[in-house]
Design a protein that fits this description.
This protein has about 425 residues and is of the alpha/beta class. The chain has two domains: about 20-60 and about 310-420, Aspartate Aminotransferase, domain 1 (Alpha-Beta Complex), CATH 3.90.1150; about 65-305, Aspartate Aminotransferase, domain 2, CATH 3.40.640.10. The chain is about 40% helix and about 15% strand. The chain is built from 16 helices and 14 strands. The chain has helices spanning about 1-10, 35-45, 65-75, 90-100, 115-130, 145-150, 170-175, 200-215, 235-240, 270-285, 295, 300-305, 310-315, 320-330, 360-370, 400-425, and strands spanning about 50, 110-115, 135-140, 155-160, 180-190, 215-220, 245-250, 265-270, 335, 345, 350, 375, 375-380, 390-395. A seven-stranded mixed sheet has the order 2-8-7-6-5-3-4, with helices on both faces. A three-stranded antiparallel sheet has the order 10-14-13. The chain has a two-stranded parallel ribbon with strand order 1-12. Helix 5 (about 115-130) packs across helix 10 (about 270-285), helix 14 runs parallel beside helix 16 and helix 15 packs across helix 16 (about 400-425). The longest helix has 28 residues, at about 400-425. The radius of gyration is 23 Å and the shape is globular. It starts with a helix and ends with a helix.
Length: about 425
C-alpha cells in the first residue's frame, strides 16, 4: 500500500512552495533583474561596465595596509565566537569615536557590531516594530531600509527629497506623515543615492520633530568621511542629546573593506529611554551568536589610524576627479541635469523635464545595458514615484566615467529620436 501511495504522490502536479507575501512589496534592483541580465551577457563574452554597486574593491581600491595587517596578525585569535555585541576593544574604539563627535552617552556597552550595516538595520527594526508600525524613510532611499521595514511587518512612509531642494527633506512634509503608529525616522547622511549632505540646521529641526512625537532616530552614516568641496559631516547623535538615536557606521565605504562585512551601530540617549531597546538588541544579537570576528580587529586601526579617505576626495583625488567627470559630462549633455553630490559614492542624474517625453528609467537602463554594455540602477528603484532619474557610482576612474556618459548620451539621442517619430506617427 505504501508503494502505491508514494507513486500516487509522485504523480500529483508539482506546485511551487509558497513564499512570504511580504516579499511582493520588496525591491532591490541594485542586484535585481538588470544585474542578472548583465551576468547573462558576461557569460556570452560581453564586458559590462558595472556602475550599479558602490563596491570599491571591484574598481581597484584596496583596504589600507595598516587595516589589512591588523586582521592578519589577529587571525590566530579569531577562531572562537566573541561576545554577541562584538570584541570589547573594537566596541570601545567605536564608542570613543562617537564621544569625540559629541555623543556624551556613548559607551562600549551601547555598541553592537554585526555582519555589515545591512544585518544591523534588519536587527534594529525587528527589535522596534510591532505589526503595522510606521517608519519615516527618505525618498529616494537606500532600498534596504524600506525592505527591512516591510519584512519586519512595518509600514514605510516615504518623505520626499526632490532634486529641486538639493535632495533635502522638508520638515513640515515629514511632520504631515506622522501618525500615532509612527515609531522612527530614518536619515541617510551623506545620502545614498543622491550624495546630499544634511546641514546642521536641518538635522536640528528633525531632532525637534522626533522629540515632539517621541520617535527613535536612526542615522545611516556609513558614508560619514566621504565628502567633497567644503561639505562638513554633522553627526546626528551630537544633536539628539537624550533622545534615543541609533548611529550606523562600518568599514565598507570609507575604509574600502566591503568584503570584511563589518558594521556597527551605537545607541545614544538617556538611560531610562534606551534601556528596553538595549535589552532587545542584545537578545537578537545573541540569537545570531556574533558578527564576523576576524574583521572586527580592523575597527580600532581604521578609526584611530591614518586618515586614508581624504586624499581620495580632496581636489586632485581619484574620487573627486570622477565626481567632476560626472558634473562635466552632465553639463555637456543635451538631456541631463544633476545635483552635485556633496558626499558618498554616487550621483543621481535625471532627464530634464520635457527633454524626452516618453522617457522611462527602467527601459532606458535595459537599453543602455543591451546596446552599450553599461549597467546602472533606475531611479524608481529607490522608492520614488518618478521615472526620470538613475544612479551611478563614482568609483570608476574619471576617463571611464567620461566614456560611460558618451554611451549614455548616445542612448538618449536614440530614445529622443524614437520619441519624436512616435509623436509624428500619432
Amino acid at each position: 500500500m505504501s508503494e502505491i501511495r508514494f507513486r500516487a504522490i509522485a504523480d500529483m502536479p508539482q506546485r511551487p512552495v509558497q513564499t512570504s507575501s511580504r516579499l511582493s512589496e520588496v525591491r532591490y534592483e541594485i542586484r535585481g533583474a538588470l544585474s542578472h541580465r548583465a551576468r547573462e551577457l558576461e557569460a556570452e563574452g560581453r564586458d559590462i561596465i558595472r556602475l550599479n554597486i558602490g563596491n570599491p574593491g571591484a574598481f581597484g581600491f584596496e583596504v589600507p595596509a595598516h587595516i589589512r595587517e591588523a586582521v592578519m596578525r589577529a587571525l590566530p585569535h579569531s577562531e572562537a565566537y566573541c561576545q554577541q555585541q562584538g570584541l570589547p576593544q573594537a566596541r570601545e574604539a567605536i564608542a570613543a569615536q562617537q564621544r569625540r563627535r559629541g555623543s556624551a552617552s556613548a559607551t562600549a556597552e551601547r555598541v553592537f557590531i554585526g555582519n555589515g550595516v545591512s544585518e544591523l538595520i534588519d536587527l534594529s527594526l525587528r527589535a522596534l516594530l510591532e505589526p503595522g508600525d510606521e517608519v519615516l524613510i527618505p525618498a529616494p532611499d537606500y532600498p534596504l531600509w524600506t525592505a527591512a521595514t516591510i519584512l519586519n511587518a512595518g509600514k514605510a512612509l516615504h518623505y520626499p527629497c526632490p532634486a529641486t531642494r538639493g535632495h533635502l527633506p522638508d520638515v513640515e512634509e515629514m511632520a504631515a506623515l506622522i501618525t500615532p503608529r509612527t515609531r522612527a525616522i530614518v536619515l541617510i547622511n551623506p545620502n545614498n543615492p543622491t550624495g546630499a549632505n544634511y546641514p546642521r540646521e536641518l538635522l536640528s529641526a528633525i531632532v525637534e520633530l522626533a522629540e515632539r512625537h517621541r520617535l527613535v532616530l536612526m542615522a545611516d552614516e556609513i558614508y560619514d568621511g566621504i565628502l567633497y568641496d567644503d561639505a562638513v559631516f554633522q553627526p546626528l547623535a551630537e544633536l539628539a542629546g537624550d533622545l534615543p538615536c541609533l548611529s550606523f557606521g562600518g568599514l565598507s565605504k570609507v575604509h574600502r573593506a566591503c568584503g570584511y562585512r563589518v558594521g556597527w551601530f551605537t545607541v545614544s540617549g538617556s538611560a531610562a529611554r534606551v534601556a528596553d531597546m538595549l535589552h532587545a538588541f542584545d537578545l537578537l544579537a545573541a540569537l545570531r551568536l556574533c558578527g564576523n570576528v576576524p574583521g572586527q580587529w580592523a575597527i580600532e586601526p581604521a578609526l584611530h589610524g591614518a586618515d586614508t579617505i581624504r586624499a581620495l576626495t580632496a581636489p586632485g583625488g581619484r574620487l573627486q576627479r570622477s565626481r567632476q567627470a560626472v558634473l562635466d559630462a552632465v553639463a555637456r549633455s543635451e538631456f541631463l541635469d544633476v545635483v552635485a553630490p556633496a558626499g558618498a559614492l554616487y550621483a543621481f542624474p535625471g532627464v530634464r523635464g520635457g527633454a524626452i517625453e516618453t522617457f522611462d528609467d527602467e527601459r532606458f537602463a535595459l537599453h543602455l545595458l543591451e546596446s552599450e554594455s553599461v549597467l546602472i540602477v533606475p531611479g524608481s528603484s529607490f522608492n520614488v514615484d518618478y521615472r526620470d532619474r538613475f544612479r551611478i557610482t563614482l568609483l570608476p576612474e574619471a576617463n571611464v566615467i567620461g566614456d560611460v556618459f558618451e554611451r549614455i548620451e548616445k542612448t538618449l539621442v536614440k530614445i529622443a529620436e524614437g520619441s519624436r517619430r512616435e509623436r509624428q506617427v500619432a
